[in-house]
Amino acid sequence: MFIADKWQDYEVLDCGGGEKLERWGDVYLRRPDPQAIWPARDSKLWRCAQAHYHRSEKGGGSWEFFDKLPERWEINYNCNGDALKFYVRPTGFKHTGLFPEQAANWDWMNALVKSRKAEGRDVKVLNLFAYTGGATMACAAAGAQVCHCDAAKGMVQWARENRELSRLPEESTRWIVDDALKFVQREARRGHFYDGILMDPPSYGRGPGGEVWKLENELYGLVKAASEALCEDPLFFLLNGYTTGFQASVLGNMVDMCVTSRFGGEVKADELCLPVSAGGVLPCGTSGRWERR
Fold first, then answer.
1. I need a labelling partner for 195 at 20 to 30 A (CA). Which of 4, 108, 187, 239 fits?
2. Confidence band, pLDDT 50/70/90 cuts, at residue 198
3. pTM
4. What's the CA gap between 252 and 240, in Å, rounded?
């Protein structure tokens, strides 16, 4: 398992019954989690929740607040000695603006970038479906030049604010609001290549013309297109997946076919998990990692 176990400002206190109880700094949130199908271990803990997201039978849901919370607040993460800072807040889609399990991947990419920078080499990283920029910050803090691409303008703005909060150089990041597949295809055609590429595609979405985008139908083509934007001596490739039912080996096979077949190296694919203070771990998706050996 890839376990994000170095957090100080974030904690899964308990999980069960299709929900999880989390501490985000000094704020305690109760949110749905379809993976947590076992009973909660410590029912008394759940009384500390300051807000509870309830799913609706019609889809979506809403927050119930028990205490007045700040509009947004900061949490910190120490990424191999680099102090990263993020704004978080409850959103209408149950999310908070950060996926803390991804810290396991931040540490991995940050260390790889630093190793190549120590050789006196520049590192260019492309972050697709980049959301609010956790991976962008981790790579930029290590010294990479990062291209941050997301189709949602609001998420890119949030990422910009996280970059400022982390006090990273403005010139460290190029901000792109665009469709990930179209953008990476254009980059390859232009001869713009990257040492590291990562992607975190959604399971489901709709295009600007209302067309349905399903991960299982589009993922291989996306991975193939992204692999063609790698440089001649790439450093890493990361594919994340949250679709229930996707085994880690599915991601590993795709990365192996598109990346290892061209560059050699090694693929590791496994569950991405968070430790639970009441006991056990919470599975949060899967990752397929490739790196040069």
1. 4
2. very high
3. 0.94
4. 10
